Amino acid sequence: MAQTIDMQGKVALVTGAASGLGLATAQRLAEAGATLGLLDIDADGLESVAAALRERGTSVRSEVVDLADPAQCAAAVAGTVEAFGRLDALCNVAGIIIMCNAHEMPPEQWQRVIAVNLNGPFYLMQAAIPHLLVSDGAVVNVSSSAAFIGEAYAGAYCASKAGLTNLTKALAMEYMHQPIRFNAVAPGGMLTNIANNMQMPEGVDYDLVKRYTGMRGLVEVSEVAEMVAMLASDAGRGFHGACINIDKGITAG
Predict the structure, then answer these.
(1) Domain spanning 11-246: which CATH class is it, in words?
(2) Which one of 123, 153, 157, 175 is the catalytic residue?
(3) Is residue 157 annotated as a catalytic residue, yes or no?
(4) What percent of the chain has pLDDT over 70?
(5) Contacts of 167 (CB under 8 A, 6+ apart)
(6) Coarse DSSP helix, strand, coil percentages of the chain, rounded to the nearest 5 percent
(7) Which of 242, 244, 231, 180 is closest to 29 using CA atoms?
(8) DSSP calls for 172-241
(9) SS3 for 18-39, per residue?
(10) Which 8-state DSSP code applies to residue 109?
């Protein structure tokens, strides 16, 4: 029997909340009754989302944060706990992808992808863990099908998501005897700002790209958000150290 996603009386911190999967996750958690801390680097988009959720009766704290900055990550967690008195779930949703020929990728682009997709989630988890231990809380990291297969022109993205997936498992083992859960979801391609703004390098071989675009089309953002919300709630209490692929078969073979 399916478990009800109930976040009444609980506080969730969601990154990338201004658009795409982060927005859908925030909306689903709000529907489940959560109080929300919302983070994004897009100030205008973040304020618009926060205002819309407040109109629906959700208590929201929003903050513009660059996930590459460990001090900003720590401050965001501290600010959320100060505002609401607790933290029950951290949903690391934000991510970026830069498509590039590996031998042409500038160091600053490589470093930016790793900083946002891997370093930022670690900094946030590092700050959140003490509070989540108190609340018997949960971390949900958004990985990708790119963590499990090689994707041409996406070396930095693949590396960052593979790292995040194994980091999730490492922390699940480290805190095996503590009241906290670490899980990840690994979507395939979704119709989000990341997909809409993706630019392929000059001379791209689309036969290689087709190998990881999937034969069943794009994944529904709402379905991934539902899984993130479930894992963040007590409905996901049986999951620890899992990475759930939602990719319409991309990584099946």
Answers:
(1) alpha beta
(2) 157
(3) yes
(4) 97
(5) 118, 121, 122, 141
(6) 45, 15, 40
(7) 231
(8) HHHTTTSS-EEEEEEE--BSSHHHHT--PPTT--HHHHHTTT-SS-PBPHHHHHHHHHHHHSGGGTT-SS
(9) CCHHHHHHHHHHHHCCCEEEEE
(10) H
Instruction: Check if the beta carbon of residue 61 is closer than 8 Å to that of residue 54.
Output: no
pLDDT of residue 125: 98
Residue with tokens 């863990």, as numbered in its chain? 129
Burial class (CB in 10 A: 0-12, 13-18, 19+), 44: exposed
How would you list the strands of the sheet with 89-92, edge to edge? 60-64, 35-40, 11-15, 89-92, 138-142, 181-187, 243-246
Compute the distance between CA of residue 248 and CA of residue 253 in angstroms, rounded to an integer. Answer: 11
pLDDT category of residue 1 using cuts at 50, 70 and 90? very low
Q: Is the pTM above the cut of 0.90?
A: yes
Torsion sign, CA atoms 53, 130, 239, 94: positive
Q: Look at residue 91 and give its three-state secondary structure.
A: strand
pLDDT digits (tens, 9 = 90+) for 9-40: 999 999 999 999 999 999 999 999 999 999 99
- Specify the length of the chain in residues: 253
> Which residues pair with residue 246 across a beta bridge?
187
For the segment 218-245, the average pLDDT, to the nearest whole number, is 96
